[in-house]
Amino acid sequence: MAAELDVSRFYARLGRLHAHFLKHRDGIWQGAGCLSLHRGQMNDDEPYLKSVVLHQYLFGWELPDTILLLTETGDCFVLAAKKKCEFLEAAVGKTPTGSSIIGLTLLTRNKSDGNAENYETLMEAVTAKNGSNGDKKKVGVLMKEWPSEKRESIGGPLVSGWEKSLTGADGLDVSDATPGLSLFMSIKEDSELDLMKKSSVLSNKILKHGFIKRIEEVIDSELNVTHTQLSGEIDGIIEDPSKINLKVPKEHVQSCYFPIVQSGGEYDIKISAQSTEKSLKYDIVTVSLGSRYQNYCSNVARTFLVDPPKEVSETYEVLLSMQEECLRAMVPGRPLKSVYATAVNFLKSSEKSFLVRHLPKNLGFSIGLDFRDPNLVLSAKNSIHFRPGMVFTLSVGFAGVPLSDSAKSAANSKSAVKDIKEYGLLISDMVVISENSKSGEVMTKHGKSLTDISYTINDDDDSSDDDDNGKGGAATNGDEEYARKVAKAPDNVVNGKRRSSRLESTNEAIQNAHEGTAERERRQIALMTRKNEERLRELARSARNKGDDGESDKAEELRAYDRTKDYPDSVLPNQVKVDMVNQCVILPICGNPVPFHISTIKNVVLPDPDSATYLRINFYTAGMAVGKDAPANMAKLVQKYAPYASFIREMTFRSLDSHNLTQVGVLTKPFYSRSTVSY
Fold first, then answer.
1. Nearest CA to 390 among 427, 443, 447?
2. Burial of 293 (0-12, 13-18, 19+ CB in 10 A)
3. Measured between alpha carbons, how far is 327 from 298 in angstroms, rounded to an integer?
4. CB 322 within 8 A of CB 348
5. Of the candidates 630, 608, 609, 610, which has an alpha carbon nearest to the alpha carbon of residue 621?
6. φ, ψ of residue 85 in degrees (nearest 5)
7. By the 8 A CB rule, do 316 and 450 touch?
8. Is 31 left (phi over 0), alpha (psi -120 to 50) or beta?
9. What is the pLDDT of residue 547?
10. Which residue, 100, 150, 449, 584, could crosslink 595 as a Cys pair with Cβ 3.0–4.6 Å?
């Protein structure tokens, strides 16, 4: 066996297990006097058996056909084949000073006598001193994996022979050690928490650079793919992260489960759900995926809304708020059931109390080497308390929520949401319980706000229902064309097909370097375009009513000075100055005076001073609505330069001398206020 045992880690963790067993023996360990923790035959179909995760925890590897006996006094016996004993030989006689573990005894499997001598040695250790006070002495075993007449093959001949020896002995009984082992392993060491954070980051990046990038490509190109095809692509990325340029060794990474992608009105938000062979619909899309990094699991799930009706968006906002409340309940000392109670109470106090009946049976589970620990689920009845170092998947969602006819009618005529009768929403995050935290700490950081997960791919057919001129739809369409002419903005149409600004393709290199910023900017520009076009349509109608000759369609460039020699003589390098004559404010940038025309200023704020005085100047910029109070010419300039220019949103100045900045604020406020009506 090429692997080596980490001896110090083995004894440290075995000592922690023994100490936990002694402390809670009469409680969650059900009065057992010793622990017989066996591992049966190799079975790749069940990677999360408690014996498997225990071996990964203690040894770093799985050792099939092995029996580990831990007594009350701290004696540890291991019965296994010769090669496995050779692997563990490095730990014999290396018990650390001060450890509660007395020693490690290795018993080599002996087929000649059917392990009769080995079983006798183990039985002597079991009966030598057993701390239970009942008539029968109890031995803690992994009951789910314990062989029986119906499940003899699960343990193999080694474990089955030991089971017969225990059950045939007088004065002995077996109890289930699984709950105690679950609680013990749920509290992670610092090294384990580090691996879980890395696993969470991996899942987060696969969601961001794998799934989201792919689904945007599918929607943009109007591709026909099935849910299972998408799931298979994501599973391939998990198994080989280099596909999304992640430098993670393939041997360190595995998929926790086959990713789940759902859409089209059929939603199962349980972790046991499966992707169907049906084609992806551009409506409400849920995705769940999980990755293992060095055997430590993580899980993340998100819902993506495509052309969502207001009713669906509002329900999603309720789900987000409910998750925040649940996180506040995940603190040390509170019972696990308080999370579910918090969710129910929050919904009952909200305007959507009917959502209580659409909650799942539990809101998550403990996670680590074991993907889902059934003894530590966030259900309505689990009375186990949160402890520092625990890690959970908090999975909140609604299933089978009916979509009203009014919501369907309010949706875009081309939206696929119109075809669904009910929908589901799901958000899952990794959460670690910290010592003095006021809420659980989320480790999967990918955005989940409404603006992060909403897509608009179908524009409304009618841009405006207003008819200020009283001339019906023809006048409205004319206003739209007139507004686009004023804005000099091309229609967002390619080959006769509308494409979403949110999903437009961008240069891949820039996307990889600035993906988060680029996404935000695209959303901001799309919103700014809609708001500004509404404003420009109003200006266009107003101009027509006044009989303008068309010259006002063009944006007038702003100019305060022709050259720097024209600056006022009194300008200092690091001083803010107002030039009333040339309608500008001169601001110091890196020691250089830079003039800003007064009409570019949205407002000026003088925050409450402390030891110094502050002056904040906000400017009109792309990526935000200009507003009705903005100068008409400024609105045109923002629309003109938005596609390619960089804008300054705000500048803040600090001075120990309050006189100058206060004077600038006083002089500037009426100055920029008058400029709003100067065009």
1. 443
2. buried
3. 17
4. no
5. 630
6. -65, -35
7. yes
8. left
9. 56
10. 584
Alpha-carbon torsion (444, 178, 87, 147), positive or negative: negative
pLDDT of 515: 56
Per-residue DSSP letter, 598: G
- pLDDT of 638: 85
- CB atoms < 10 A from the CB of 423, how many? 29
CB 354 within 8 A of CB 400: no
Give the separation between CA 329 and CA 335, rounded to whole angstroms: 9
Tokens standing for 421? 């009768």
pLDDT of residue 675: 47
DSSP state of 473: H
Residue 334 and residue 439: Cα distance in Å, rounded?
11
Here the tokens at position 486 are: 């004023």
Three-state secondary-structure class, residue 601:
strand
| Count of residues in the chain | 679
Which is it for the CA torsion 470, 475, 477, 479, positive or negative?
Answer: negative
Residue 640 has what pLDDT?
81
Contact 349, 452 (CB under 8 A): no
Strand ranges in 200-334 using DSSP code E only, listed in sequence order: 253-255, 260-262, 284-293, 296-306
Long-range contacts of 507-514 (CB under 8 A, 24+ apart): 512/245
- Answer positive or negative: Cα dihedral of 193, 195, 200, 201: positive
Contacts for 668-672 with beta carbons within 8 Å, 24 or more apart? 668/578, 668/585, 668/598, 668/601, 668/604, 668/617, 669/604, 671/578, 671/580, 671/583, 671/598, 672/598, 672/599, 672/601, 672/602, 672/603, 672/604
What letter does residue 134 receive in the DSSP assignment?
A: S
What letter would DSSP give residue 209? I
For residue 580 the two structure tokens come to 């009333």
DSSP for residue 245:
T
Residue-level pLDDT at 507: 38
- Tell me the pTM: 0.69
- CB-hemisphere CA count at 13 Å for 88? 28
CA angle 94, 98, 100 (to 5 degrees): 85
pLDDT, tens only, 433-485? 999 888 999 999 999 999 889 888 875 544 444 444 444 444 445 444 544 44
Low-confidence ranges of the chain (pLDDT < 50): 1, 131-132, 149-150, 153, 461-476, 478-480, 482-502, 504-514, 674-679
For 200, 243, 244, 253, 291, the CA distances from 247, given in Å and listed in that order, are 15, 10, 9, 11, 15
What per-residue confidence (pLDDT) applies to 171? Answer: 84
- The whole-number pLDDT of residue 463 equals 41
